[in-house]
Amino acid sequence: MKKLLLTVSLLLGVVLVGCNNEEPAATPPAVLPAGPVESTILVEAVTGMRDDFIRGIDIGSVITQENSGVTWYNWDGEEQDIFEIFAEVGVNLVRIRIWNNPFDEYGRGFGGGNNDVATAIEIGRRATAAGMGVQLNFHYSDFWADPGKQQAPRAWEGLPPLELAEALREFTYDSVRAIVDAGVDVWQVQIGNETNVGMAGIEGWNRKLLLFRAGTEAVRAVCPEIQIVIHFTNPERHGHFIAAARQLYNAGIDYDVFGASYYPFWHGTLENLTNVLTEVAETFDVYVMVVETSYPFTVEDGDGHPNVAPNFSNQTINYPVSVQGQATAIRNVFQAVADVGERAIGVIYWEPAWTPVGPPNEIENNWRLWETYGSGWASSFAASYDPYDAGLWYGGSAWDNQALFDFNGRPLASLNIFNYIRTGTFLAEGIVLEEMVAPELPQPELSEVEVIELQGDNLLVNASFDDPDMSMWNIGLNLPNSGHVERGTSDVRTGAGGLVFWQADDSDFYVEQEIVIETTGLYYYSIFIQGGQDGVAFHMLYIYILVNGELRYTVTTELLGWLEWSNPRITNIALEAGDVVTVGISVQSGPGVWGTFDDFNFYLVESLE
Hints:
The protein folds into two domains: 18-427, TIM Barrel (Alpha-Beta Barrel); 474-607, Galactose-binding domain-like (Jelly Rolls), CATH 2.60.120.260. It contains twelve helices and 23 strands. The chain has helices at 2-11, 62-67, 82-88, 117-129, 161-181, 205-222, 240-250, 270-284, 323-338, 363-373, 390-393, 417-423; strands spanning 37-39, 54-58, 93-98, 133-138, 186-191, 198-199, 202-203, 227-232, 257-261, 287-293, 344-350, 425-427, 474-477, 484-488, 498-502, 507-516, 521-533, 539-547, 550-557, 561-566, 569-575, 580-589, 593-607. By secondary structure, it is an alpha/beta fold. It has an eight-stranded parallel barrel with strand order 2-3-4-5-8-9-10-11, surrounded by six helices. Strands 14, 15, 17, 20, 21 and 23 form a six-stranded antiparallel sheet that branches. Strands 13-16-22-18-19 form a five-stranded antiparallel sheet, with no helix packed on it. Mean pLDDT is 89; it is low at 1-15, 23-27 and 435-450. Helix content is 23%, strand content 25%. Strand 10, helix 9 (323-338) and strand 11 form a beta-alpha-beta unit. The termini are far apart.
């Protein structure tokens, strides 16, 4: 009955129902003109988008930025509350990430907004006061969670799966209850963040499903009207989304929305995005949306900390890196989701206000602010929880060039995209659009290309499977009869052998080798893979590294076809002498997967004192 009621409300164009939405919006929605409006950028109106389509933003870092002295301005050049600014340009939902305990034992914040439940309440109240709904995004960790990093909160470390599920259930219920009771108008709750491989420190579908069920049941117990979102990324990977949705369906997980990350420079074509979301929506009768997207407006850095994009050597940059290019990229994501049809309900832009705390020439003061207030992506204090990522690369915003404001907090024309996608625009008199055709992208000089100088010998034994002795390799099957994996001599990359795999039914297996580290330093791991899959079933492959029995690093990859070799790799692996390291690859797939592993490489790159 719940889903039927939600379907009717959406078809009638009613705004999503949340909890605490009895009061009228403090900032009433602007009355938009019927046709295109004048602008300095050209935006084509999105077609097929319902009136109640979610036009969202994720601004989890906002409180720590304000504490660091950051301000934002409206179109008149006046300083204005950031929530009011977003409400006035057509945003109707604010997404808030939530970590369990993003502070060290001395109360020093890990950064990235220090987003605990108390911070979520503060952000949520301000969003509600400005007339916007809220999505709560539980990471179920003490800091960032993504496909390669799903670390358990410290309070949950070592719990067996059933106890972990109960801890997650209790935390979810108590948190949502506290936020709703604080007056926040919660429209949606997201159970986990980019949960491709794991969640809360565990891997594997059976255990993940325990956690999904615990989280969804907790939300329903607080407020049945709240929509529940489950979030995955990598839509470009063949069969990945439909396979994940099938797991949720077969397990009877009670959720409403299949959420996706889609960053144009990482995640394939818009046509593919529409197709995979349509397949999920139509097959399993769920809503779909993009819960994270963004695009840069400049190649410049605003605060002295390197930015994630653009990277012209290994990212797909299909739009000009400009305000016009940014607006076009965002508009096209909205259109790709709207093209799914009635089951498509929204798009959320990630961190459009993460502007610099200070210019690059004031880097020492910037560091002080990032460390004091947590306004950078990570502080040095995060090393106590995440020593091998945040502990090595902590610093400022890697997103300031993807904001919808300039480096001084002044609005860009692309900030109005949430209104422009509904009206369209025409160019103001005298404005010449010189960016309609993407310019030829600069290519990196040879000196700018990353060159990894490997030291010594490959630390893996029989790394290319040329020796018939396979005793050094551990091949494990997580399901009975879940894969044929053996040394073979056909379809190999180099030498006399390779590790060949095939299976007519579902596969779930791993291949790994253990090493004891002799030299403290940074290491490099890579393998080569070729193969494919008969039919349209999914496959999920990732290489991984365990350090002293704990999962530290993962990188996903895919099968590109017969003798089309992919080369997934992990760099900057920080290890100490005496560490027991397990390097491997995991394969989970539907029927018909086949291929070859060859040329595993594990090398020391740099010795460290």
